[in-house]
Amino acid sequence: MEEPENNITVLCVGPKGSGKTTLLKKLQDVEGIDYTYSPVPTIGTNIYYLYYLNKHGKKQMLCIREVGGEMVQLWSNYLDGIEKVIFVVDTSNLCQISAGAVMFYTLLAEPKLQQAKFILVLTKMDAAYRQMRNEALLMLQFARLSKELPSAPVLLEASPLTGMGLDALRDHITNKQKSITK
């Protein structure tokens, strides 16, 4: 099989315990991600490779760097060349949502990320009651962001344990969400 082309760099960040590692492992189709899975918090960074076929049937590789929530003060060291940012927030944890909002706004204001596309992923929807989604969006001031930013962040709900939202996330990070008509 040929080597993939176009290594796209994606950054995955969010507060500690938001579910970044589980989400990315599930995107890679790692076995054993279920209700008994208990990841170790990421202290440092992890690199994940996601392989997919582009619209021309060519094999592509997507490189995703996860930076642990414990390293929030060092996130700025990982922003060069980033095209997409996956920001993960645990909707079952109100305290994390408010802390996450500060982190999210800091990244949105970062000059190195002015051209980057942001994907806001609300995780653990299977563990949260439905109203938590609305609380999260209010705390993150998502409606205001969508109006004020030239390129509004994409909002996705996901649960790595049930698989909900994973296809949509994969489509957004691999650019398959846009249908091109000629």
From TrEMBL:
Coiled-coil zones: none
Record: residues binding Mg(2+): T21, T42
UniProt cross-references to SUPFAM superfamilies, sorted A to Z: P-loop containing nucleoside triphosphate hydrolases (SSF52540)
Top-rank taxon, per record: Eukaryota
Keywords: GTP-binding, Magnesium, Metal-binding, Nucleotide-binding
MF-aspect GO terms: GTP binding; GTPase activity; metal ion binding
Binding-site residues for GTP, renumbered to this chain: G14, P15, K16, G17, S18, G19, K20, T21, G69
Protein name as annotated: ADP-ribosylation factor-like protein 16
